[in-house]
Amino acid sequence: MTGPTLNVIAAEDLSMFGRDPWWLIVVKAVFCFAFLMVTVLFSIVWERKVVAWMQLRIGPNRHGPWGMLQSLADGIKLMLKEDVIVKRADKVVYVLAPIIAAIPAFMAIAVIPFGPSGNEVSIFGQRTTMQLTDLPIAMLYVLAIASVGIYGIVLAGWSSGSTYPLLGGLRSCAQMISYEIAMGAAFASVFLYSGSMSTSAIVEAQADRWFIILLPVSFIIYVITMVGETNRAPFDMPESEGDLVGGFNTEYSSIKFAMFMLAEYVNMVTVSAVSVTLFLGGWRAPYPISTFWEGANHGWWPLLWFVIKVQLLLFFFIWLRGTLPRVRYDQLMKLGWKVLIPVSVVWLMLVATVRALRNEGYDFQQILLYAGGALTTVLLLSFIADMFRGGKERQAEAAAAKEPPVPFDPMAGGYPVPPLPGQSLPPVPRRRPRRERELIVSGGGNTVSDDPDGGQAHDGKEADGA
What burial class does residue 14 get, using C-beta atoms within 10 Å of its C-beta: 0-12 exposed, 13-18 middle, 19+ buried? Predict the structure, then answer.
């Protein structure tokens, strides 16, 4: 076993957790809850302000200074609205669904470190770490909690007793499960490099270099999957008002509707905090600051760096919403299954190979040479395969061009069907010019008689008079 591996294992010391008195655990839990709620209230206003600035609008400016209390006013308004339960709903599941969606969003923050585990701070005279708790499998806990949140959305769509919420719930289920696969593969690359699934140990492993530099592909994959996981634009298919009239929460109102919106924004904060922990050094100060200031990573300062990084990722969410249009659902699933999952699996195999070679004693230049040779071979084989496939496609197109076009029946089987690729709708008969139609309707003089004896053109009124 090599030296770096021993250091990583030694860094996974979780003995400092679980020693706090019960009242301090309650204080830290309340702090985590308050941190999420305040961040959500700020993010909603910030999103509306930023999108308004992008679209040259004013944005909220009525409630509170600079409109900063607008989200709080919206929350109070939703709580005071009438709570309607639709007649055909399964009432028990209908009420439990928003709770199931909201609670897991809060639970994942419990294992996120806000500061170094070895640097204890004083809270009411009690020394403690800036983290609620940690586990040897903390990241698996995060994945499990994120998976439980899917049930709330699916059950909300099913229990509403309506078609469109059911479609929205099924869309969300398929989307979130698909993107969780690629997310798990991105996590696995971090586990290989850090040698641990503990969040505090992962941050400690980034003391020399952040994982965004060592694992850029994993970071890009995770950023895409976290947008799809939170159902945010451009992947907000479950709430597509154009074809679902609101999605899984169509039949919800008042506080239950507000809980779905709260779960969405809390999930945004949670996935941003996980991204900061795994790839952006966690609570560590950025590179220029940490070099000339020794105390940047001590005391309460790590909390500041962590919050700044989380806010930058939340701005990225807002930027995407104000920039990119919504994609089609087939494009969303194609990106997840045909692009993200294969790329994440291949990247994971490459990272595992590099780690195995380093553990065997190969230097970095040899590993880079082997990886470059393997990548060149794969690209060469794919180029040759594309050449043969392109030749076959050209032959098929030439053969199809010689054959007569297949007639298309738009009413096949008695039901209107859309044309398949290569087929086209039959031409629509041309309508008469507008002037001619008006003359025909009013009995104009330019109408032609349909007399079988070939009579000349005459006016409709004269025919009536005759």
Answer: middle
